[in-house]
């Protein structure tokens, strides 16, 4: 297994290649052909076979716009991923086109800005490639001694979000599933959805957990990292949209006078989640 870490300047997520005795699987395509080509070069440098199939964790641009650089290898994705990408068919990358996608809340202002930064003057080269194989609940791919299972999880970030479990290596790729919603209005979390996703991740008992815009974490590290967020979701579920009570109970849980900035932001996300019900 080979992982290339995320780059935040233009929202490049983690890319991974998982090799078995017969095939190599690519997890996500990259956010541009340039991103994909960088990963191809790294694979070649380390003597890793180029992928001959790929899976997409969800439809968002930073995970799919690099598909055209992978020489037509077959791609598997959730059925909703295919439907969402069909909406983007014909995207020409022009300012007018990006502005229209923002107006329709298909993408956000920040995504449009990242696309402009990633592609520069080459936006006319954006090509949306449709996945070849669509599934509903789960799909298993036997690479030869290594079995990868894609499982549809959904969630606030994107309704088509999937986990990728590499069974023999005990690695769980989470995509962006644990993130808040980023399109269709203010960022938000719903406590029930977040807790379901977290329980689903823990149930794998993986040795390593990999979120697409973070660093790989061991199982214990992952649980420690999410402990406060899990508690925040539980408090929000129990108290409802009572901002002051949520903050008060989180301060008591953390034994602190002030909540860290990321958790204060998280309180806002969960409060927005109540508005969307």
What is the CATH third-level topology name of the largest domain?
Answer: Metallo-beta-lactamase, Chain A
Q: What is the CATH class of the largest domain?
A: Alpha Beta
Radius of gyration, in angstroms, nearest whole number: 19 Å
Helix content: 25-40%
CATH architecture descriptor of the largest domain: 4-Layer Sandwich
- Give the helices and strands as they follow along the chain: EEEHEHEHHHEEEEEHEEHHH
Structural class: alpha/beta
Which stretches of 5+ consecutive residues score pLDDT under 50?
Answer: none
Number of helices: 9
| Strands, count | 12
Q: Give the overall shape.
A: globular
Structural write-up:
By secondary structure, the protein is of the alpha/beta class. It has two domains: 2-218, 4-Layer Sandwich (Metallo-beta-lactamase, Chain A), CATH 3.60.15.10; 228-275. It contains nine helices and twelve strands. The chain has helices spanning 33-45, 61-64, 79-87, 95-103, 109-119, 191-203, 219-239, 243-254, 261-275, and strands at 2-4, 15-19, 24-27, 53-55, 75-78, 133-135, 138-142, 147-152, 162-166, 171-175, 208-211, 217-218. The strands form two sheets. A six-stranded mixed β-sheet has the order 1-2-3-4-5-6. β2 (15-19) and β3 (24-27) form a beta hairpin. 38% of the residues are buried. It catalyses: 3',5'-cyclic CMP + H2O = CMP + H(+); 3',5'-cyclic UMP + H2O = UMP + H(+).
SSE blueprint and pairings:
Elements: E1 2-4, E2 15-19, E3 24-27, H1 33-45, E4 53-55, H2 61-64, E5 75-78, H3 79-87, H4 95-103, H5 109-119, E6 133-135, E7 138-142, E8 147-152, E9 162-166, E10 171-175, H6 191-203, E11 208-211, E12 217-218, H7 219-239, H8 243-254, H9 261-275
Parallel strand pairs: 3-4, 4-5, 5-6, 10-11
Antiparallel strand pairs: 1-2, 2-3, 7-8, 8-9, 9-10, 11-12
Function: Counteracts the endogenous Pycsar antiviral defense system. Phosphodiesterase that enables metal-dependent hydrolysis of host cyclic nucleotide Pycsar defense signals such as cCMP and cUMP.
Keywords: Hydrolase
Protein name: Hydrolase glyoxylase
